[in-house]
Amino acid sequence: MQRLLFLKFAVLAAAAPATGQTLDLARYALVDLTHPFNDQTVYWPTAPSTFALERQAWGKTPGGYFYSSFSFCTPEHGGTHLDAPLHFAEGAASTSDVPLERLIAPAVVIDVGRAAEADRNYRVSRADVESFEREHGSIAEGTIVLVRTGWSRFWPDRERYLGDAALGAGARLSFPGIGEEAARLLVEERGAAVLGIDTASIDYGPSTDFIAHRIGAARGVPNLENLTNLDRLPPRGAFVIALPVKIEGGSGGPVRAVALVPKR
Q1: What contacts 103, CB < 8 A, 6 or more positions away?
Q2: pLDDT of the residue at 11
Q3: Quick one: 178 exposed, middle or buried, by C-beta within 10 A (0-12, 13-18, 19+)?
């Protein structure tokens, strides 16, 4: 049913110019899944810089009208962003090459908030995925799979969010992620289009092998990290649009992720 609803949505949108129909957004709650980029944006501890916005122009022009312009600079992997497969797989798709059908797709939300509250280094297990499917139905191929840990409530407090406010390679990180067996189930068996999470990484904080990243990257699966407002999405039924800055050859980049949730 979810796939049929999504196809109906896509067909209506594509046919609108020819039929005169319009996509009635009033039928959907629009949920922003993106943290704003600013001087508080959380980056990986080894990032060489953070977000910078520099004013280039501001004020009245000689013609009498207002004009403003800025330049911005940011590492790829900070704030709400996409990891392209190239991030962990040599020769894989870069940010500009990720197929759009992976980035505009139906979504499910696996909620492990209680487990993460009890263990801040919790890893989503195969059993968690199977439990979700028993209650909400099988995860269809091509689905964007989002994991809600509740961690976005700590944003932008680096110490609470990352587990350590220190910068550099010596930072001791602590936050939930996706375990190896769950990643294999979602990527290799279910054919997930994207894995996403409301923490700084799909791999849990203490990870040194980043196995969930590697499993996904090997199959061309990108990630969405540092998401927010996942508590406003149903377990299934939402459509997610997550479009990154189209950086040619990049390994990731800032993304504006939104969800369309059908109103009952």
Answers
A1: 82, 193, 194, 222, 241, 242, 243, 244
A2: 41
A3: buried
Quick one: pLDDT at residue 1?
41
Give this prediction's pTM.
0.91
Q: What is the CATH number of the domain that holds 114?
A: 3.50.30.50
- Please say if 77 is a catalytic residue: no
Given 35, 81, 87, 213, the catalytic residue: 87
In a domain, 69, yes or no: no
DSSP 43: B
Residue 63 lies in a domain: no
Residues of 54-76 as b/e, b for ≥16 C-beta within 10 angstroms?
eeeeeeeeeeeeeeeeeeeebbb
User: Which tokens go with 10?
Assistant: 């896509």
Q: Which domain holds residue 173?
A: 28-44+75-262
Residue 243: inside a domain: yes
Total structural domains within the chain: 1
Mean pLDDT by 10 residues, the chain (264 residues): 47 48 87 98 97 98 98 97 98 98 98 98 98 98 98 98 95 97 98 98 98 98 98 98 98 98 92
